[in-house]
Amino acid sequence: MAEPEVHIGGADAGDEGDVEMQGGDQSADVVEISETGTTQDRATGAAAKEDEKSAQRVTFVEYAWTPTIIFYIRKRTDYLKSPMISLLVGTGPSQTLLTAHKALLTRSPFFSEKLASSNSQVDLADEDLDAMSCFLEYLYTGEYYPHKLPSGNLEPDPEVPKIDDSGAQLLKHAKVYTLADKLGMPSLKSLSHSKIHLITSTAIAELAYARYVYSHTSRGDLTIRKPVASFWGQRSHVLRHETEGSFRDMCLEFPAFSYDVLSYILDSQERKSQRGGEDEVGKSARKRARGI
Which of 46, 82, 95, 236 could form a disulfide with 102 if both were Cys (CB 3.0 to 4.6 A apart)? Predict the structure, then answer.
């Protein structure tokens, strides 16, 4: 579909000074809005008629967008010509049907392979609905909610607590991260990982996040595992008392987590001794320092 064109009439004879937006569904409803001057002008008779002759008529053509993309319009709209694909997410009563344009979905190697044939529906029984919704929003807009502000913070949501005390906010972005990894979307992985570090959370929330990371990522994924080990390596001696025994359970359930945390502590001690006793652990003033 071609981009909308804006025609602004000039002052030639017979030109009514119309402003028209053309494009989209030509059969869509047309709404005309006319401005006929001020009340004072209309009260003067002749002046009112003159105003009516020179009034501008603004014509809007309403686009017939699908519900999936109504919130955003790209400059390049070729993907709108591609077929709509049905995505069946989840199972049972919570199973949800989402739709998206094939041309956008095939930017993912995963969907490119799934849609190589004439398939018009993809079953995603094991995927998280919220994470999949974030993925689709990202495809159409290049972002997903909550958006990152120019200041580097996440946009505030009055319905979301300022401090994540359950892990829900951390897990939201962690699930987007693992989905992006599966779908082959490295830019989305990077975005979701950056948002994780902008969440202020409690020890309980951090442990829930660590449990998810170590149960849903590969051992070689140091991008997300290393910061988790670093965080607990710097604070486990304090935060483990706030987890009501869950830290011990985590260590027993995920030996890789125990090893990574211990390795961080030992490496820190080794670097400390090599520098002649400078204390690095706990040096940062950041509330949630995740990196080394």
Answer: 82
